[in-house]
Amino acid sequence: MRRGTFRDDTVDYAAVGATQAPDLMHYPPERSLPAEESWRIGSGEARFHAAGDALLSWTAQRGAGLALTDVRPASGPMYSGVSFDAEGHPIAPARSESDLRYDSDGTPYVGAGTTIRVAGRVKGLRADAELRVIFAVEEPRRVGFALGTVGDSVVSGEESFMLDWYDNDEVWFTVRAFDAPRAMLYRLLPALTRRRRRELFTRYLRAISPLYATPA
Fold first, then answer.
1. pTM of the complete model
2. Which of 1, 17, 136, 152 is the most exposed place for a label (fewest CB within 10 A)?
3. Distance between CA atoms of residues 29 and 25, nearest Å
4. DSSP character for 108?
5. Predicted confidence (pLDDT) at residue 80 exceeds the cutoff of 50
6. Residue ranges per structural domain of the chain
7. Is the dihedral of CA 73, 79, 80, 82 positive or negative?
8. Level-2 CATH architecture, domain 2-94+107-208
9. What is the pLDDT of residue 83?
10. What region, left, alpha or beta, does residue 123 occupy, with left being phi > 0 and alpha being psi -120 to 50 degrees?
11. Residue 53, Cβ neighbours under 10 Å: how many?
12. Is residue 97 very low, low, confident or very high in pLDDT (cuts 50, 70, 90)?
């Protein structure tokens, strides 16, 4: 089991870890727009492990059309503060493994404290940002992480990506997020934030799920 949490003042929002709050959709952080989607992406151990490896090697972000640059793992010993269980409750701290893994092009896998830059467009809307991994989880039946905005984004907030392999053998992929508009256009037109989020969710699913079929 590997579980790590990184909390740092350099993120540009206060509600760090709020994507794991059970009541996110009813009580989101102030001035933010919450979103949540879950999809069954298959069943069985092989599907869970394949999806987990894809998720931790940034496949959801790349599959969403975002280019990753400047991937910087946390320097020095990783902070091992409060982590969260499946219901969003804090659990006892646990230290993460220090060994880094890399994908085929040499990019480090997801790890608590890692900072990345992403760039791209979502339905014509800018999706550039500097992001930090707030927490990362690798457990026998649960894998995932959360990304928080550090700067350079049109919105401020957090999104989490979680895979669960349930006792009935089903594998589910859940993405939760809250976005507070920062750019003036997004403040004036909140529908742009929702449109951007809906498209990102669709792209994340397409990237992680072999069962995804584009509607006719």
1. 0.83
2. 1
3. 10
4. B
5. no
6. 2-94+107-208
7. negative
8. 2-Layer Sandwich (3.30)
9. 54
10. left
11. 14
12. very low
SS3 track for 66-101: CEEEEEECCCCCCCECCEECCCCCEECCCCCCCCCC
Using the CB atoms, write b or e for 31-40: b if 16+ within 10 Å: ebbbbeeebe
Q: How far apart (Å, rounded) are the C-alpha atoms in residues 123 and 94?
A: 40
**Taking Cα atoms as reference points, which of 111, 122, 85, 110 lies closest to residue 201?**
122
Q: In which band, very low, low, confident or very high, does the pLDDT at 59 lie, cut at 50, 70 and 90?
A: very high
> For residues 143 and 163, is the Cβ–Cβ distance under 8 A?
yes
181-215: b (≥16 Cβ within 10 Å) or e: bbeeebeeeeebbeebbebbbbbbbebbbeeeeee
CB 123: neighbour CB atoms within 10 A? Answer: 11
